[in-house]
Every structure is written in structure tokens, then in C-alpha cells.
Amino acid sequence: MKRIALLGSTGSIGTQTLDVIRKNSSDFKVIALTCGRNISLLKEQIKEFHPELCVTELESDADSLKEEFRDVKFLSGSEGLVYAASETDTDMVVNALMGMRGLEPTYYAINAGKDVALANKETLVAGGEIIMSLVKNSSYTGSSYETEKGRPVRLLPIDSEHSAIFQCLEGNEGRKVKKILLTCSGGPFRGRSLSDLKKVTLSDALKHPKWNMGKKITIDSATLMNKGLEVIEAKWLFNVDADDITVLVHPQSIVHSGVEFMDNSVLTQMGVPDMRIPISLALGYPDRIESGEDELDLFGMSLTFEKPDLETFRCLGLAYEAIKKGGSYPVVMNAANEVLVEKFLNSEISFLDIPETLEKILDEHKGEYNLTLQDVLRIDNETRKSIK
Ligand code: MN3
User: Fold this and answer.
1) Nearest of 350, 168, 310 to residue 228 by alpha carbon
2) Using CA atoms, how far apart are residues 167 and 161, in angstroms rounded to an integer?
3) pLDDT tens digits, residue range 129-156?
4) Is the dihedral of CA 5, 8, 10, 12 positive or negative?
5) Which one of 20, 243, 343, 360 has the largest count of C-beta atoms within 10 Å of its C-beta?
6) What is the pTM (predicted TM-score) of this model?
7) 124 to each of 12, 128, 177, 193, how far by Cα in Å?
8) What is the DSSP secondary-structure string of 357-374?
């Protein structure tokens, strides 16, 4: 039985992770749950999954829950998240946190020898270099698989594209990869022109055609910044140059990405667009378990692929530029994007203000290199404060 700490249990990935665990209840034990402020849902999850530890964003929520659930330990804030990720008796940490607050728990989980199922993109976008070198020198300490102790920890992607690439690379270790083919739905504004995008509203941007996700990632999908973040994620996870990652717009979202090898053979992975497939792969790895998802019916289906429009969707190009410059550039890009998306969600700025402001910030930034975890957190914080 795998012992799991689930960070971000009340969000979109968190609840779907619990769906998969519910389907495979004899294989998993939930040790820790963490959430932001959705306390009513957390209470239901405590009653169903009986964790030993829960972490809330606010101390006041933790204090009041202590009264109701006397046999559960409650902590709060970022210290609580790091504790849940690293100090609990677990085999795997599922990091389904939103935004930069996901970086430190990932770092300390790997440091403590836990496998990490990672849905938090910011971990790799801002801290990719640090995290991957930590993984390289890590040593698994989990309790379930005694014979595996001491191997490097696994960093298993919970992102449909990266899960696809991971599956295509299995059994091909050591073989030279020529290209990563990263597919992209195109978002709700695929085919629109720059002048069309001047007029789009918040509710237009929140209507994703294929994927049902949290608000931040839905806006990132509309600007194509999500694909930019995923290029950076793929670069670190699979040790490839950004120039060797090709983005293909594939509106049906059936082919979840692929790999081209030296002989021009291309492997891809397919499935219905639903996160429970990558979640179940990461949770069950190296086994495959029930995902609860529908079968893929290919009969009558047409699959199409287009080049992304980098002139209209500037964010994708900005992400390529940021990762090629490296160092602090992706940290600044990620932090600025998070603030700008928040402002767009609050109707403070327009849709096109996101790429325009980002470009200005990146142009003005002077790069720092050889960053430590503390440097990344400082630069992230400085960037956020600099945006009014
Ligand atoms: Mn994705």
C-alpha cells in the first residue's frame, strides 16, 4: 500500500487524485491532505479518507478543525505544507498546489527521499535546474517498497503532455531523442487574430473547449502561456534543449504529445482528454491502475495538427526566449504571469495586457545565474512587488 501526502486536495487535480484513490482504495492510504480555504470540502475528505495530518492556509481554520477532529493533527501555512511534504511517513507526495507555493514542498519532499507526482508547473519553471540536480543526487526512503530504498526518487509528471512523453520514453532509456512533440489544444481563441483578442472578455477566456481545469491554468491556456510553461517543464524533465521541443496545435486533444527518435520514428500517447489518466499513471507507477476514465473510441475521429500562431499568442514565444536566456528569466516570467493573470481575473487589466506587460518586464530584467532556492524565492517575490 502506497502512503500518500496530497497537497492541494480540494483543487481540480486534488479532487481527481482522490477519485483515482477511491477507485483503487486497497492500493493507497492517504496520510496527509492540505488545502487553501475550502474547509467544507476538506471536512468531507477527512471523513472519507481519515488522514493523520491536515494543513490549511489559515491558522484560524486549523484551530477550529482541531476541535472537530481530535485524532487528526492540524498545521497551517507554508511551514505546514513543507511538513506534510517531508516530515510525514509517506512514499509519495502528490503536489497539486497552484503557483509558486508549490516549489518549496517539492524541494523538501525530494530532499526527504519521497517520490513526487508533480502537477505544480511552477516547481520546474522557476526551480527546474535546482530540482533536477536534487533528483539526481536523491535517495528514496519510502516505506512501502523496502527493496527500492536508496534509488533516486521519481519525479512523475501529472500533466497530460509530460505524462505522454514520459510513457513514450519508457524502454528507450539512453536512446538519443531528436525532438519532443508537445501538443496544445490551442485554447478558446485558436484561429483568432490580434485585433479579435483586443475585444475578448474574462468569461470568453474561461471557456476552455476541451479541458476542465482551475482558473489560472485556463487563462494560461487562452494566452498559450500554459504551453510556454510546459516547454520549460519538458526541457527540465527530459533534459532536452528548448529548440528541440516543437509545439503542435491539436484541437482534439487526443494525442497528448510524442517523441521523435534518430530514425525519424515518432511515438505518441493517446487517450480521452481527462487528467485522471496521467494521475493514475503517476500514482500507480510502475504499475498501471484503474483511472475511471472512458475508453478512447477512435472510430470516425479526425486528428489535425497546426503550427501555433506566435505573432498573435506572444506568450509562447516569450517563454522560449526566457528559457533560452535561462537563470532568473523564467522565474521572473512565471511570477509576472501569475500576478497579471490574477489582475485579469479581477478585471483590472485586459487580455492583451498580459503579453504586453510580460514582454516589457522581461526586456527590462537583468539576468542572475547560478541560483539557489533562496535566490529563486527572492527574485519571485521582488518581481511580484514590482508590478503595480
Ligand atoms: Mn498540460
Assistant:
1) 310
2) 10
3) 999 999 999 999 986 666 788 999 999 9
4) negative
5) 20
6) 0.96
7) 20, 4, 20, 31
8) HHHHHHHH-----S--HH
Residues paired with 5 in a beta bridge: 32, 93
Residue 71 CA, ligand 1 centroid: distance in Å = 38
Tell me the pLDDT band of 244, cut-offs 50, 70 and 90. Answer: very high
- At 260 the three-state DSSP class reads strand
In this predicted model, what pLDDT tens digit does every residue of 54-105 receive, in sequence order? 999 999 999 999 999 999 999 999 999 999 999 999 999 999 999 899 999 9
For residue 225, the CA-to-ligand 1 centroid distance in Å is 11
Q: Which residues surround ligand 1, an ion (CB under 5 A)?
A: 159-161
* CA 19 to chain CA mean position, Å: 18
Residue found by looking up cell 535517495 in the block? 139
Q: State the distance from the centre of ligand 1 to the C-alpha of 167, rounded, in angstroms.
A: 15
Q: How far is Cα 330 from Cα 324, in angstroms, rounded to an integer?
A: 9
